[in-house]
From TrEMBL:
Belongs to the YfgM family. SUPFAM superfamilies: TPR-like. It holds the Pfam family TPR_21. It is found in: Cell membrane. It comes from the Bacteria. PANTHER family: ANCILLARY SECYEG TRANSLOCON SUBUNIT, UPF0070 PROTEIN YFGM. This is Ancillary SecYEG translocon subunit. It is a single-pass type II membrane protein. Signal peptide: none annotated.
Length: 210
């Protein structure tokens, strides 16, 4: 098929343009396709990991209800070791910490809570772990350690709970004035409909409002 002069010029221009840019564009498209395939593959991997971790966590929860601490430990450790990037790893550690504390294995409970604080992906879970660790430290009469644990919260929704916990530590430590101020902050920060608001107000009234 013959082309007229104008068509031949257009074809020649296209060939020249392709020689200059065609390979680069092809490489760019290839890179984009590879990146997309990698993204899809990564999401599939994460979904698979989460599904596997969920099965282990479900079994861990059953063991917790049966109070089988011996079986809980390897399951929780497997979540932390093989599925640390999933939401179940930190929840498994919190569950093991609770069961360990109930079994009076305080060092094990502390170790799990510290792991959550250091490794949890969710700020809310880290705050939960801090509150529970402070409660354990309070039981051990490690008042300064508990106050250090409660020094700050990450999620604003936990502020009231942190102030209440600080008040409890300060009160048992014997610093009533500081405890009073902390309880006042707790009442101010807690949602009005929170179930523990009235209890904090009772503790505050017991200390006096002066």
């Amino acid at each position: 098929m013959a082309f007229d002069l104008q068509e031949q010029e257009q074809i020649a221009e296209f060939k020249a343009w392709w020689d200059s840019w065609g390979k680069l564009i092809s490489l760019g498209l290839l890179a984009a396709l590879v990146a997309y395939a990698g993204w899809k593959g990564w999401n599939a991997y994460l979904a698979s990991q989460s599904a596997k971790a969920g099965v282990i966590y479900a079994e861990l929860d059953k063991q917790a209800q049966a109070k089988d601490l011996a079986k809980m430990k390897p399951a929780a450790e497997q979540l932390k070791k093989d599925y640390s990037g999933t939401a179940f790893a930190s929840r498994g550690a919190l569950l093991l910490a609770k069961s360990s504390a109930e079994a009076n294995d305080v060092p094990a409970a502390v170790a799990q809570l510290q792991w959550v604080i250091a490794n949890a992906k969710e700020a809310g879970l880290r705050d939960v772990a801090r509150l529970r660790l402070a409660a354990v430290q309070l039981d051990q009469k490690k008042f300064d350690d508990a106050l250090a644990t409660l020094k700050s919260n990450e999620e604003t929704s936990f502020a009231g709970l942190f102030f209440e916990a600080k008040g409890d530590v300060l009160l048992i430590k014997g610093d009533k004035a500081a405890a009073r101020e902390s309880y006042k902050q707790a009442v101010a920060k807690l949602p009005k409909e929170a179930p523990n608001v009235k209890f904090v107000e009772v503790k505050l009234e017991a200390l006096g409002n002066s």
